[in-house]
Amino acid sequence: MSSKIALLVKSMEQGQAQVEQHPPPPPPLPPQSPAAEQQWMGFSLLTVAGFAFLTFNSVMAVRRSAGDLATISFVGFSYVDLVSLFYCLRLFEKTPAESPRRHRIKTAVWLLTTMLTAVFSYKVAAIMPFPAQVLVWAMAGATVVGGFYGFFLRSDDQKA
Out of the domains of life, which is the source (predicted)? Predict the structure, then answer.
């Protein structure tokens, strides 16, 4: 019986020596989500497709404007404003909550949103009768004031 135990101990020691010579393989990498795999220059493919669609539509609107400077200016301003807004939102999401830079980015987001609201309200109000114009501008004003309150006046304690 003791010889069997000795053989078992010896085989275990040899197995341990083999394990020491050949370390175990590294654990497999965690599976990545499909969204993480579909990246292009740090952006998701959906984001790239959205910007391509926005760019294509902006170019087509300028081409159809027949040289109308007001329309070209509106489309160009809206495009630059939207791209700047999305860039600032991306920066805002990546900036740590304690950073003083975050407040400046939040201010830029609010200003870009306000400008976009004003430009679109101007275009919509231009084709409406006077009572509807008043309603459009009142809604735009409420949106701007509500955004200001939500971004700057309401404390973080109240948001939770």
Answer: Eukaryota
